[in-house]
Amino acid sequence: MQACGLIVEYNPFHNGHAYHIQASREATGADCIIAVMSGSFLQRGEPAIIDKFHRTKAALSAGADLVLELPYLYAVQSSDLFAEGSVKTLNEAGVSSICFGSESGDISYFTQGYNTFKNNQASYQSALHEQLDKGESFPEASRLAYRHIGLTTDKMDLAKPNNILGFGYVKSILDNDLPIDPLTITRIKSGYHDQAITDSIASATSIREELLATNKVTEQVKRALPEETITQLLHYKQKANCWHSWESYFSLLHYRVMTMSDSELAAIHGVDEGLEYRIKKSALKAGSFHEWMHAIKTKRYTWTRLQRIFAHILTNTTKEEVNLIKGNASVPYIRLLGMTKTGQHYLNSRKKQMDVPLITTLARANVPMALKEEKASNAYYSILPADKRTEFRRQELQPPIMA
Amino acid sequence: MQACGLIVEYNPFHNGHAYHIQASREATGADCIIAVMSGSFLQRGEPAIIDKFHRTKAALSAGADLVLELPYLYAVQSSDLFAEGSVKTLNEAGVSSICFGSESGDISYFTQGYNTFKNNQASYQSALHEQLDKGESFPEASRLAYRHIGLTTDKMDLAKPNNILGFGYVKSILDNDLPIDPLTITRIKSGYHDQAITDSIASATSIREELLATNKVTEQVKRALPEETITQLLHYKQKANCWHSWESYFSLLHYRVMTMSDSELAAIHGVDEGLEYRIKKSALKAGSFHEWMHAIKTKRYTWTRLQRIFAHILTNTTKEEVNLIKGNASVPYIRLLGMTKTGQHYLNSRKKQMDVPLITTLARANVPMALKEEKASNAYYSILPADKRTEFRRQELQPPIMA
């Protein structure tokens, strides 16, 4: 059996994601589609709008055969570590290809880009540090350094987050010499109509904005979502009484920061260069999460970077924890969130060749690092009413979802 | 000017407290009554029903001339450290007497008791450890050990919390050879009527129960409270939209525990003997603070002891912090919460003889340990709505209350 890997967040799963699965299957002829998905918190540092279990159900219903969880320590990171964790998870799962969306839909731009990068690494690094020293944010400094070595072109604009991630996947595959074919398909944009799949495509960002602003699954948003996503969104809201967004965590986060010592705050991953003082000082005046973020934000500390830092504070993620995963040859484990019959067959045929533990339930997980997921989930569900928190937290201890 | 010291919590200030002030003034002829009061959290590990600033106003209006804050690290402790911190604070403030309530109203029972204790210390210690080894709680083991050396009598029953504290004050004065006269007045009990002061006396416990159960200042409870306490209770509730009790902190506390590592939890003051596992395990099922406490409680870990531990978790109080104050000759500072004109005159005459800093506002406090009060207050106010938290927290940075 052949497997193709996708790197996803499904926040929430929409018609564009369904197209991505179908197009990847067609392009590769794979028998099994494996999605490695972020869990409770996402790459840009946000809490997922609904939990990973409900998102897994939507994904399985729309064509994914296996949903694996990208460990928190890789998931809530800038593109390099995020790409490394995702690609290495898929490698352990034995995929022969990884397929991602890009503007161009042409993988040669990425592989050629990689060669350019390798041949000009010293020049890239010095340009990067020059920009960082000027006070630029990492993404902006990196974009300028890429341009400096002639890597950012019309065909692969490394200012676009999706291209940065795609380039990260290719880089991670080639750097580690993994037996995986990188593939890319053209992203279909909002407004593009592909009748074979759907009547409407909208970005996950615009879908979330609409959901959170109206607190409803409106008719407009329904057009961009598969039926099962609508079901899962409504089911989650009915049970949990909320969809998740940062603002709901403000009180918890504020409480936490206000009772931490400076050195405890400085031990949190991402809190560098005296940022602990800035976070604390601004906390005294902030009346909302939004106000707080605006008070801290600088050119160097972008919104995304700060959101990630706040996720690390909320989940109590220390520099020490992140150091445990840095530079490792492999991910510490693979966690299975859900599978179809096809996924199950694939997994049975593959299991014996895995070099790391396959975790099917945290209740029996013997991998200390996997407990981080439970902690992240505990933080994630903390905004639920007391009687619901326990019920939702227990999902972590259940066997994988079968579809 | 002569000063008499009282050791108080005023949770809330009631008619019995007003009587205590008046009787102490009469018994000592003191010009100035100095109350050392616990701040946001109390000796039995509970959050104060209204904050220290509103309680200070009530105390000043009813006869106290100076209100000093007992530092959190002494306030939320078993009787020995609580007594030590209170007595040493009053000693720095220069009181010539300390007056406390007791059943007997006869100080000779306490001073004779102290001699008995000193002469039988080894015997007390071995009886104490024998009982602790049997699994008794500290208060019960201590009571049995006191009985063993013939110290608990009808006249001074050391099973009664107030007598334990009173004995603690006397012990602290005599152990440290402080130039302070210990005095005791007979406690007037609930139901006792002293027309000169009031129509009704009720215990602070029963007053709190009535306030929290009805969420109102009922006619019944009003009879036990001076007018100013009623004003402060209503004012607080109108502004903060709550009175404080443990149940309101359940979500914060639960969030905090669920995101701590075992070793972080074990670093908290009071979390010993593997209690961290018991706290975490029970957290998974607890639907309320009450349920959680019941699940952890044992003969050895009494309700009070557990409440103190939860206060330390909520305020992030570590063993390391508590070790900083243990065995010190003096308290690290004196913090002034409020004063009358008389109190101000007294303080001016006394200031130069103080060996430790006098803190009048945390905004200018140059004593690292004083920042602990800000942290404890931050935790205390965390249950308030976002727009109110900031306003209430800022009180910590204001100058003392003048009455």
From TrEMBL, chains A, B:
A Pfam family of this chain: HIGH_NTase1
Biological-process GO terms, alphabetical: tRNA modification
Keyword Ligase: yes
EC number of this enzyme: 6.3.4.-
Residues binding ATP, per UniProt: 7-20, 101, 162, 187-188
First-listed, main subcellular location of the protein, grouped into a coarse class: cytoplasm
InterPro entries with a match to the protein in the record: Rossmann-like_a/b/a_fold (IPR014729), tRNA(Met)_cyd_acetate_ligase (IPR008513)
Cited HAMAP family: TmcAL (MF_01539)
Family, similarity comment: Belongs to the TmcAL family.
Free-text function comment from the UniProt entry: Catalyzes the formation of N(4)-acetylcytidine (ac(4)C) at the wobble position of elongator tRNA(Met), using acetate and ATP as substrates. First activates an acetate ion to form acetyladenylate (Ac-AMP) and then transfers the acetyl group to tRNA to form ac(4)C34.
Protein name as it appears in the record: tRNA(Met) cytidine acetate ligase
Lineage of the organism: Bacteria, Bacillati, Bacillota, Bacilli, Bacillales
Designated gene of the protein: tmcAL
